[in-house]
Amino acid sequence: MEGGTVVIGHRFCSPQPLQLSIKKKIYILAGYGYEVKDAYDNIVFTIEKVLGFFRSNKMLVFDAAGVPLVTIKSKKFTWHSRKQAFKGDSTDKKDLIFSAKTSSMFQFTTKLDVFLANNISEEVCDFWMKTNYMESTCDIFAGQSSTLIARMKKKYILLGRDKLIMTVNPNVDYAFIVSLIVILQEILSSTQNDSV
């Protein structure tokens, strides 16, 4: 896209294609989170599920220095599975960055529509995501076009500890892409749990 794709911050846009890996981390006493690393095995982001008295519906995305960048929260009482992303550790409506909702879920495909906070009408999505073949790949597109901005592939590892490999196009906000992938994983895991 001309001028790049900035949603969370300019500092998360690389002039070169970027490859990141995301791995789920299970904590014995404290639920789970995710760890995002670059091609040199440096931690770029950590994502932690916020614990509460009941089933938590909130996750925090931290940068490498431990500063909260994004809070991801489920929106209750909606027809579609909808997640909202807010600035920092806020969940205030004025700090909304974007929201994502399922537009279709079939046996082999899941599609999510993504709307930036200033897209009040939500008649046309700002981005969309589509998974293929039992969620082993996911493509992220700009607008309602076929302009691909990022791709995720699942790499199967022994003992169920799968690794997600993301390739982000130049000048695309990779903090935004990571947030979208986490949202997708949370929606997929909640639908799998609900179907059990």
Automatic annotation (TrEMBL):
Protein name, as recorded: Protein LURP-one-related 15-like
InterPro entries referenced in this protein's UniProt entry, alphabetically: LOR, LOR_sf, Tubby-like_C
Domain of life: Eukaryota
Organism: Nicotiana tabacum
Family: Belongs to the LOR family.
